[in-house]
Amino acid sequence: MSNTLAIGIDVGGTNTKFGIVNKQGQILMQDRIKTNERENAEGFIEVLAEKLLPMIEQNGGVENFIGIGMGAPNANYYKGTIEYAANLKWKGVIPMAELIEKRFGLPVKMTNDANAAAVGEQMYGVAKGLKHFITITLGTGVGAGVIIDGKIVVGHNGFAGELGHIVVRHGGRLHKNTGIRGSLESYASATGLRDTAIEFLQRDHDRPSLLRDYTINELTSETVFNCAEQGDSLSNEIFEYTGQILGEALATFVHFSAPEAIVLFGGLTKAGNLLMKPTRQAMEDNLLEVFKNQVKILYSDLKEADAAILGASALVW
Length: 317
Fold this sequence. Notes:
It is a single chain. This protein is globular. The two termini are 15 Å apart. α3 crosses α9, α5 crosses α7 and α6 packs across α7. The protein has 2 domains: 128 residues, ATPase, nucleotide binding domain (Nucleotidyltransferase, domain 5); 172 residues, ATPase, nucleotide binding domain (Nucleotidyltransferase, domain 5), CATH 3.30.420. It is an alpha/beta fold. The strands form 3 sheets. It has a 5-stranded mixed beta sheet with strand order 3-2-1-4-8, with helices on both faces. A 5-stranded mixed beta sheet has the order 11-10-9-12-13, with helices on both faces. Belongs to the ROK (NagC/XylR) family. InterPro entries: ATPase_NBD, ROK, ROK_cs.
């Protein structure tokens, strides 16, 4: 039974989720801890070990595991380090893979969470069998993973594929965390869509809208979706504007890597055609002829609650 299982760990800004996964993509056991409960990485690993070591023993011990895969913010694929992650307490460069290997006695592979999601789609999801595709996660931010010739693109320093930070509107909206103006994440994330709603409401201040029934603090991407579903024209325009920008960006990505498919994941995909119709139209309108009508836009079919663990575990197979 040697090497029949893997461990997937997803380090988030609030919670860290982890689980025992078999090669068929079944999560046999899983749990979570608070990421920033302790002040340093060593303390984090001890809290993790308290929960994960008994799970390992219940599944045959370390000899039954091929290794540990970890997705984390600002993770360097080559060095196994987490470097200057803004939403974690641990400052500077953390040799996370080395620390985890010493504590658990298993080899560790790690990359950023978006790259891990791409590998998970390739092994367990709608991209199974595809060698050229891009995953785009439309959540609080915009994450991306690029697969070319069946391999994740990490670049010379381990940080390639940051498509969410590509500038799509020069001199545009300020991204507070990066200082970049006009990045894709500033417009095509759930946060960006909310910011667009606020801008539109202030710009067309005399225009009636169901969105005016909410305070600024109550406005979310879900609020805009619910109002659009009720036929609110301003809310529909917000989705059209967001889809236009996203589609233009996807066309740029297609020109760069000629993928077979773009796999979309995350909360904004639940808006369905409200977002996807203008996105697809804008993408096709901005493609060279040789690329038109060739790239599929797919929705991830991985269960959202499990996708991060599956993606991280896929790194070690």
